[in-house]
Amino acid sequence: MISTGIIRSIDNLGRVVLPKELRSAYGITPDTPLEIFTEGDSILLRKYHPAGACALCGEVTAMSIQFKGKPVCAKCRKELAEL
Question: Can you list the domains of the chain with their CATH numbers?
Answer without folding.
Answer: 1-48 (2.10.260.10), 50-83 (no CATH)
